[in-house]
Amino acid sequence: MAMLHVLETEVMRLWSEILGVAVTSADQDFFELGGQSLAMVQFLAMVESEFQIELPVEVLFVEGLTVAEAARAIEKSGTLTPAGEHS
Amino acid sequence: MTTVIMVTHGTHGDVLPFVSLGRILRGRGHRVEILTHAPFEAVARREGLEFTPIDTERDYERYLADTPLLLGAGLERWRRFYDASGLFDQIRFECEVLKARHVPGETVFVGRHTTAISTLFAGEALEVPTAWIAVTPLQYMSERAAVHMYRQSMSDRLDAVRAMLGLAPVDDWAAWFTSARLHLGLWPEWFDRAGVPAPSRVRLTGAPYGDDTFVEPVPPEAGRLLDRGAVIVTGGTGRMIHERFYPAAVAACAAARVPALVVARHRDLVPERLPDGVSWFAHLPFHQVMARARAVLHHGGIGTAVRAVAAGVPQVLLAHGFDRSDNGMRLARLGLGSWLPERRWTPGEIVPLLREALVADGYRARAATYAQAAQPGLRPAAEAVEALLNS
């Protein structure tokens, strides 16, 4: 549960930067916040670059994705590790 | 003498860098031909390139008119767009031209990353070394998505083009997508490091500055406005722009009481009635006028963004779709600009950022480091393309 909370915080940080709006709740939806398919591409690429986690490409084509769902997808795909801590 | 055949698609930011690259290659003694949209024939021929149109002026306008549909979500949109715009037939046509023009052992193909599918197909069939060139980092960031799209929704039509060339269907789209022998990125290292970096196989050569292929003089009215401290407002040269961009940008300039040059190829995108001190221009030679502007309020295209940094001019981005918010994010991280998403395009949000840009104390000094590192990157790109034949 603690890890999921950390992941949600990271997702909110990334979405705020990508979307240019404050993202403050795990219930907020990427597309309702103004996100589009290429912004989702950006999110996947940033997750891969920063945390070395490759989310399934199918995530790009979903019609709704909340912070909590994105965090769970990251949790399922691997262990969160900031890129700088990889050898 | 090498024959270099280039294929590119899109708007000025996608085409003019290739025209400029072609000019340099031609200056180095090579024969250069470009396959692209019909409206670019004059500028390509002026630079001494041979030109083959892949469409007509009317087709191109329709293509531009349909592209806003791509801003929405969903895999099927792209297939519908390719079908409706006849892009599979266009790829087939490009392959036929590449096949007809190549000289065995003396030819290099150069294509725009993601869309110049024909260069990879024809290069594979004819054993011609091929370079793919990206004009924005998001093209590399999108590779997994593009591979998925080609594999899941377009492989039937693409494999039919391959069959025409005597090639078997693609069995590994991910490997095919990275099969060019040379991969170039036309942006500076500092811009790359500010966001998700390009893959290690990519050689970054620096900014393209394709806009210096336009040689029209600066209109007197533009000169007068610049002398009065005007800002430049531009949403790029295509129609891939949110309908609120120009109304919001113009309203913000009026609210901030700053004169403005609104540069937009399509007049209908711009409010019919413009406030005093705001004038519309279809084109302006940015390499001449950018440094004279007090600030640039733009859509977030990478060409405009890097050109503004090189000119030492503060910038505010109203970014919507494509690579624009990624470009805005990179500039914001570097302290070189600010950006707003579409839902924040109100005078109350834009005007403070514009005013901040107009009084950007020390901006030129801050940008100077990056401006120096934003030197033209097309010569190294030309050398890399040249070396392909000897590799």
What key phrases describe this protein's structure?
heterodimer, A: 87 residues, mainly alpha, 3 helices, 0% strand, disordered C terminus, B: 391 residues, alpha/beta, six-stranded parallel beta sheet, 46% helix, globular
Protein model, in words:
The complex is a heterodimer of chains A (87) and B (391). Chain A has 87 residues and is mainly α. Chain A is 51% helix and 0% strand. Chain A is built from 3 helices and no strands. Chain A has helices spanning 2-19, 37-51, 67-77. Chain A is globular. Chain A starts with a helix and ends in a 10-residue tail after the last helix. The model of chain A is unreliable at 82-87 (pLDDT under 50). Chain B is an alpha/beta fold and 391 residues long. Helices cover 46% and strands 14% of the residues of chain B. Chain B has helices at 12-27, 41-46, 57-66, 75-84, 87-101, 117-126, 137-141, 143-164, 173-177, 189-193, 220-227, 245-255, 286-289, 302-311, 324-334, 347-358, 363-372, 378-388, and strands at residues 3-7, 31-36, 50-53, 107-112, 130-134, 182-185, 203-204, 231-234, 260-263, 278-281, 296-298, 315-318, 337-340. In chain B, the strands form 2 sheets. Chain B has a 7-stranded parallel sheet, with helices on both faces. Chain B has a 6-stranded parallel sheet with strand order 10-9-8-11-12-13, with helices on both faces. In chain B, α12 (245-255) crosses α16 and α14 packs across α17 (363-372). The radius of gyration of chain B is 21 Å and the shape is globular. Chains A and B meet through α1 and α2 of A and α8 and α15 of B.
